[in-house]
Amino acid sequence: MQTSSSATEAVRVYRDLARRPSVARAWINPAAKDVGTTDRKHVEVCSLWAQRDIETSKTAKFIRSHKISMTDRGVASSEVSGAPVDTSTCQLQQTSPSGKLSAVVRLLSDKQYLEIWDHTCKLKNVELQALEKHGKVYDDGTFGCFQWSPCERYLLYIAEKKTPKMESFFKRKDKGKAESGDAPVQGEEFVYQEDWGEGLVAKHHPVLCIFDIEEETTQVLENVPDEVSPGQAVWCPDGKGVVFVGWWHVPFRLGIIYCTNRRSALFHLDLDGRTCKQLTGDDLSVRCPRFSPDGSRLVYLQNPPGGPHSSCSQVAMYLWKEKTAVVVTDIVRQVSGDGFPGMYTWDTEIVAMYLWKERTAVVVTDIVRQVAMYLWKEKTAVEVTDIVRQVSGDGFPGVYTWDIGFLQCWAADSRRVVLHTNWRSRMALIIINTDTNEVKKLSAEGDVTAAAWRLLDIRDDLILAACSAPNTSQHLRCAVLPPAGQEHLVKWETLDVEVPTLTPPLDHKVITLTPADEGMEYEAILMRKRGVESPPMIVWPHGGPHSVFSSEFLPFTVGLCQLGFAVLLVNYRGSLGFGQDFVESLPGKVGTQDVSDVQHAVETIVGTEGVNKNQLFVCGGSHGGFLVTHLIGQFPDTYKACVARNPVINIASMFGITDIPDWCCVEAGVEPDYHKPPSPEVYTAMLTKSPMFHASKIKAPTMIMLGEVDRRVPHTQGKELYRLLKTRGVPARLLVYPDNNHPIAKVDAEADAFVNIYKWFTEHMATV
């Protein structure tokens, strides 16, 4: 391959892929009767999309609208309503319960404005920081919320706590000028303030805030415990209180993004009595509380804190009057066949939950993830699904989700909950009957254009979901939920006339593998360009290590396949969606079990799938970078070149600089203990499990890509390997992307990385 022409072709392919938008969130507006009819109603579906704009190096955001006509028998028709509306300056947006008002937080020139709109015009516009009540409003999916009160007078949101003005001891003052406001604090401007780590830099202490639309004033809520950071707040149904998740600050603020195993609890803040009560126990990790309309139940996901950063969860329910908890689905330990592996997903942004009239509840998600529900009137918590340990056949594998959909999740019959979860190498839509604890798949099976499903909203039994597949980018589908027991009759409709499918399509398959040590089966997804004989293959293990590849549309892998490579995505033991025992099999064995699984997958595929065994390459990020650098060290003659993105290279040296030092301990098989420094034995265990231990055997040309402001795996990790390779004369290239953190996801950096990955591999084919 010619390098120059290869780069040109890679640019063309990536430009085409960048034009495909992805769904950020979507919602269903209230239904209305069609004029002149009695059996037909229409609803408006609004969806927020994100699209890479390579020319401006920014992400464009826009809202699309669809009109859906429905009858009692299902969806009758759908059509696009108007052109997309650009919302790139909008940080938060929420429609009021009645649908009459809309609130927007907009960022302009580093100032945040709160706008209130009705159907005709902008009613109000207030610069929030000018009120001097708090710092920046949070728009992230970890802490942030933006909620209308039931009366539609107030807005609930999260912001950074206001800090006092600070100045130097040596600042000169005008003695004749009187001080205005609070006097500045001297000598405090350089005091270190902990934040919440990767992706949440400068977010130190969030506070709960309420904006009064009529008075145009903001109140920061008091009586929240000082030792917790509040977030994911929701109104109580009567509007007289707030329920929120509080994350403990002890022993210190550990990085929280991608880590829903952080110790946390649900709290109820009574606005009338100005009291704050802890609703759940001290030794839990909970998230995403959501109320039902009548205020009787609270639903959430929960798991024990600590351990792997992601794993299987329980669905639990808290009964407000009885003050007791029950389990609906348990943690799945083992899965055989296509059994349900538990709840595992990675989405984090949720706005509201709707349950049933008789059983109002709040929904919360955690990481190993139980789904739990708190019954408000009964004052009782019940576990709707427990952590699944073992399952056979096509049984339920457990709950693996970071949320319970963006908006609503409950069926109109008040007994069934719709969720999405990782189910082995797919993302499935499931329905849980909270009376019988029965779990069923709801997503269409065998549909090649919809292998990965994600719940967006459900209202009056109209379900809205986002779908994709290796050959098909994200698109919207909707369906009317059939009565209980008839869920298999669900009929999905695509909202757009054409599904965005690749032409020509890629070939892809999920391959089941049995490890060499005869442990639990795992899977890999093989993708390749149709009609290409004996293609070179890129082996791509995921990061985490407790995450998973789903059979979904992934622009990088799709683009590399279009350029002639086969790509093997390996879900080694330790991945999500295969049961809790699968997850827990890996800690203490990183660098051996996961490496062995990936290598075994490669050797199996080379022998059975017709790829070129002399043109094998590896690429991965984070723990995936850990694995690919292990592979080129432990199997130095197998791989022709390597790309490692923000790789973990030396667990021992990472321990003192990462925002998640507990990860270093857990994955190395030692108990975190912050009361004393690690012993020489602990450091030895960390080092011997690291790629650095095998780095002197590396022969493969290696390109390392680093995000300059990565707090999760700081760039010194990659530089540690780069310096060793340069010293030993191994071809090495180092790319450092300014202002990029762990994902290296800014538009210009992502585009550059794609072309450089392709060039690096094609350049080193010449040595074959």
Automatic annotation (TrEMBL):
Catalytic EC class: hydrolase
Key words of the record: Acetylation, Cytoplasm, Hydrolase
GO BP field: proteolysis
Pfam families: APEH_N, Peptidase_S9
Entry's EC annotation: 3.4.19.1
Gene Ontology CC terms, in alphabetical order: cytoplasm
GO molecular-function terms, A-Z: omega peptidase activity; serine-type endopeptidase activity
Primary localization: cytoplasm
Residue ranges occupied by any Acylamino-acid-releasing enzyme N-terminal domain in the UniProt entry: 10-363, 375-502
Keyword Electron transport listed: no
Enzymatic reactions: Cleavage of an N-acetyl or N-formyl amino acid from the N-terminus of a polypeptide
Record InterPro entries: 6-blade_b-propeller_TolB-like, AARE_N, AB_hydrolase_fold, Pept_S9_AS, Peptidase_S9_cat
Subunit structure: Homotetramer.
Family (UniProt): Belongs to the peptidase S9C family.
Protein name: Acylamino-acid-releasing enzyme
Record organism: Branchiostoma floridae (Florida lancelet)
